[in-house]
Amino acid sequence: NSPTIFELGQSLINGPRKSLLPSVVPQERGERIPLSFSQERLWFLDQLQGTKEYHISMALSLTGALDVAV
Q: Looking at the whole model, is its pTM more than 0.85?
């Protein structure tokens, strides 16, 4: 249990290096991959009324020095 961001970071750095999830490996796929339920829903809504609500219509520009170590 890591109640703060600092403690979570420490547990990630010092914790065990094994993952509970299987590794991601490339797979051969057919030409058409079926949509997930969420993707089907968005496609249906777009066909019905358009989906401008799902589009992010702004951009941010950051200035200043980037601390790569952080």
A: no
Sign, CA torsion 36/18/70/24: negative
- For 68, the token pair is 């790569």
Residue entry with tokens 């951009």: 59
Contact 2, 8 (CB under 8 A): yes
Q: Would you give the DSSP letter of residue 55?
A: S
Round to whole Å and give the CA distance between 66 and 51: 35
3-state secondary structure the chain: CCCCHHHHHHHHHHCCCCCCCCCCCCCCCCCCCCCCHHHHHHHHHHHHHCCHHHCCCCCCCCCCCCCCCC
Q: Locate tokens 């299987």: which residue?
A: 22
Question: Between 38 and 1, where is the model more confident?
Answer: 38
| DSSP character at residue 21 | S
